[in-house]
Amino acid sequence: MSDPFDIDPDLVRKLADLLNETGLAEIEYEDNGKRVRVAMPGVGPQVVAAAPAAAPVPGASAPATAGGDPAAHPGAVTSPMVGTVYLAQAPEDPPFVKAGDSVHEGQTLLLIEAMKTFNEVKAPRAGTLVRIAVASGQPVEFGEVLAIIE
After folding, report:
1. Is 147 helix (H, G, I), strand (E, B) or coil?
2. From residue 12, how far is each of 5, 23, 48, 103, 140 by CA, in Å?
3. For the whole prediction, is pTM greater than 0.85?
4. What is the pLDDT along the chain (150 residues), one digit of tens a residue?
């Protein structure tokens, strides 16, 4: 059995090169239960490897449905892409929405920056925003729950 932290240096180099080419801040790759994440925190790439394990989303609170998976909630708003989420137009601006706000279909909830382009994530339906599951500046994956509307 191989060590779960045995990392292929060529793979890390390829991932770091991909970060430089695309302008992304972070990339994650998983194969056969081994996961490697390469991030650019400032000066150079940072490599984090992890054995397979379920981990909570940083900055996320408890699911809106007691004991349930937030992704299974019928009002879950998921990320349409990989990128970095922003809750406001600019750091000094108020957030687009806050938990407890009433939202209408098509209203901008947040932005996702991908490849230096800001993409609006809009409410798929009207309702009350009961939860924002991400923090501003947090990297997100495709399909990750961003918010819950009831």
Report:
1. strand
2. 13, 16, 10, 42, 20
3. no
4. 455 556 777 877 887 777 666 666 777 777 766 777 777 655 444 444 444 433 444 444 444 444 466 667 778 899 888 999 999 988 889 999 998 999 999 999 999 998 888 889 999 999 999 989 999 899 999 889 999 999
